[in-house]
């Protein structure tokens, strides 16, 4: 495994471990998801550049657009839960109560 592939896979798994182990606040979970999406974007961009494939060139831009939509939806949920529940801690949220 080359160093650049190791860096992107390590960044993805660090975001995944942060999402699974530090689930105290909704904003930290959203930041971990955003870090995972950005590492996927950079990895896909480097992959298309290394292969010199012109037919895969719009794929990183599509992934980046989905990442922006996911971030905006996550921030909207963060604001909605902070207004309705008073805090955005994940331990205080109950799916049966929402």
Automatic annotation (TrEMBL):
<keyword id="KW-1278">Translocase</keyword>
<dbReference type="GO" id="GO:0098803">
    <property type="term" value="C:respiratory chain complex"/>
</dbReference>
<comment type="similarity">
    <text>Belongs to the complex I subunit 4L family.</text>
</comment>
<keyword id="KW-1133">Transmembrane helix</keyword>
<dbReference type="GO" id="GO:0030964">
    <property type="term" value="C:NADH dehydrogenase complex"/>
</dbReference>
<feature type="transmembrane region" description="Helical">
    <location>
        <begin position="28"/>
        <end position="49"/>
    </location>
</feature>
<comment type="function">
    <text>Core subunit of the mitochondrial membrane respiratory chain NADH dehydrogenase (Complex I) which catalyzes electron transfer from NADH through the respiratory chain, using ubiquinone as an electron acceptor. Part of the enzyme membrane arm which is embedded in the lipid bilayer and involved in proton translocation.</text>
</comment>
<keyword id="KW-0249">Electron transport</keyword>
<keyword id="KW-0830">Ubiquinone</keyword>
<feature type="transmembrane region" description="Helical">
    <location>
        <begin position="61"/>
        <end position="82"/>
    </location>
</feature>
<keyword id="KW-0520">NAD</keyword>
<dbReference type="Pfam" id="PF00420">
    <property type="entry name" value="Oxidored_q2"/>
</dbReference>
<dbReference type="GO" id="GO:0008137">
    <property type="term" value="F:NADH dehydrogenase (ubiquinone) activity"/>
</dbReference>
<keyword id="KW-0812">Transmembrane</keyword>
<keyword id="KW-0999">Mitochondrion inner membrane</keyword>
<dbReference type="GO" id="GO:0042773">
    <property type="term" value="P:ATP synthesis coupled electron transport"/>
</dbReference>
<protein>
    <recommendedName>
        <fullName>NADH-ubiquinone oxidoreductase chain 4L</fullName>
        <ecNumber>7.1.1.2</ecNumber>
    </recommendedName>
</protein>
<keyword id="KW-0496">Mitochondrion</keyword>
<keyword id="KW-0472">Membrane</keyword>
<dbReference type="GO" id="GO:0016651">
    <property type="term" value="F:oxidoreductase activity, acting on NAD(P)H"/>
</dbReference>
<dbReference type="GO" id="GO:1902495">
    <property type="term" value="C:transmembrane transporter complex"/>
</dbReference>
<dbReference type="GO" id="GO:0005743">
    <property type="term" value="C:mitochondrial inner membrane"/>
</dbReference>
<dbReference type="InterPro" id="IPR039428">
    <property type="entry name" value="NUOK/Mnh_C1-like"/>
</dbReference>
<keyword id="KW-0679">Respiratory chain</keyword>
<dbReference type="InterPro" id="IPR001133">
    <property type="entry name" value="NADH_UbQ_OxRdtase_chain4L/K"/>
</dbReference>
<keyword id="KW-0813">Transport</keyword>
